Amino acid sequence: xQEAGRSAEQLVENGRRRADTIIQKTHQQAxxxxxxxxxxxxxxxxxxxxxxxxxxxxAEQERAAVVSETDQVxxxxxxxxxxxxxVHGEITGLLERTFTERKEALxxxxxxxxxxxxxxxxxxxxxxxxxxxx
Length: 134
Description:
Elements: H1 2-133
């Protein structure tokens, strides 16, 4: 019986050692797995940061291009407005000159027409006067 008890104790002791070894290996594997997962997570996080930074740079470049194009459009618009202002001024001046010249021409034509009418009236009246003198 003693030998059976010793054998049982040895079996229990061997079982405990095996269990301790299994638990130790499991802890080591868990630590290794945790380290691997942490490393992978850090790698993925770094890749995500790099992608985000690349996207930020591209967005900044696109924004700069849009700002540049907007400035060019504004300059073009301002140039057009200046040109339109000059053209408007020139057309207004031309219309004013044309109106003044036409008014003067109509005034002169009216005066010429009156002078012609007066001259005709005077010519008709002259024979009567001549006849009166005789």
